[in-house]
Design the sequence.
């Protein structure tokens, strides 16, 4: 007579990134989710290298355009070299804003394709999806700044302070750029189409970029425009980057830029995450 032995099934393994009993996901789980989503977004870029064209060519086109078209008019004919040291730090500020616009259109497009609905059905932190987007875009921004500086050095850019100050200028641009990305993510979650996001973004970008100290000293502008330039956060970032690279007085531009970055993130990030949860 044979005996039948029953084996107690093994308990299922619990992933360290799984939600806790109260539904919350710990820091370790959040980091794992962000890492996985960053890899997913990076693989998308690898499969679609054309999505890097703006990062690769925008710094070259803008630098050559403004140095050779406006450099002589602003600094005097034959003094484009001086203008390089003025405009390149300003363009670092501009890179962050232009790349941030792509985050909003990307989020909007992912919702249209149903990708975001799939993410929301998974047991992952909602913020991790959006943070992963920002991490990848910051990587794209670093590539754009590297190309911008390379073109700048070819045209005669000189670092009059130190390499550490240069990296501080890059880091400050990245911090401010990341805060702007939350604004455009919110636009991407609010507007119905990617075209609408681009249209609204351009309405914001154009006044901020050209009504700033990025391309020309505010002293050459009318008084009413100087007043706008003084409170424009892009002017503060451009002045801070310019001071760190050229050794000009920084004043309070660094702290004002950091304050803008913290304030924008503190206001827009919770709204964007809530909108991401509730979007239908």
Sequence:
């Amino acid at each position: 007579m044979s005996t039948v032995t029953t084996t107690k099934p093994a308990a299922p393994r619990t992933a360290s990134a799984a939600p806790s009993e109260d539904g919350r996901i710990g820091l370790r789980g959040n980091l794992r989710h962000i890492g996985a989503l960053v890899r997913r977004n990076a693989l998308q870029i690898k499969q679609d290298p054309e999505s890097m064209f703006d990062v690769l060519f925008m710094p070259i086109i803008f630098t050559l355009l403004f140095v050779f078209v406006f450099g002589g008019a602003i600094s005097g004919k034959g003094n484009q070299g001086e203008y390089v040291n003025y405009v390149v730090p300003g363009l670092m500020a501009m890179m962050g804003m232009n790349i941030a616009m792509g985050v909003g259109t990307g989020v909007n497009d992912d919702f249209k394709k149903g990708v975001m609905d799939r993410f929301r059905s998974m047991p992952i932190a909602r913020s991790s999806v959006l943070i992963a987007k920002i991490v990848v875009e910051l990587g794209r921004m670093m590539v754009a700044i590297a190309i911008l500086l390379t073109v700048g050095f070819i045209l005669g850019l000189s670092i009059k302070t130190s390499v550490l100050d240069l990296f501080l200028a890059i880091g400050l641009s990245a911090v401010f750029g990341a805060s702007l990305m939350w604004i455009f993510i919110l636009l991407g979650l609010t507007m119905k189409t990617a075209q609408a996001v681009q249209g609204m973004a351009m309405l914001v970008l154009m006044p901020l970029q050209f009504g700033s100290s990025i391309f020309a000293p505010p002293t050459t502008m009318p008084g009413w425009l100087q007043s706008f330039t003084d409170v424009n956060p892009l002017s503060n970032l451009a002045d801070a980057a310019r001071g760190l690279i050229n050794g000009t007085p920084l004043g309070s531009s660094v702290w004002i830029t950091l304050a803008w970055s913290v304030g924008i993130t503190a206001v827009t990030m919770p709204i964007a995450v809530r909108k991401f949860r509730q979007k239908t």
Summary: The two ends are 63 Å apart (CA to CA). Residues 241 and 276 are 34 Å apart (CA to CA). Residues 1-22 have pLDDT under 50 and may be disordered. Residues 80-113 form the longest helix (34 residues).
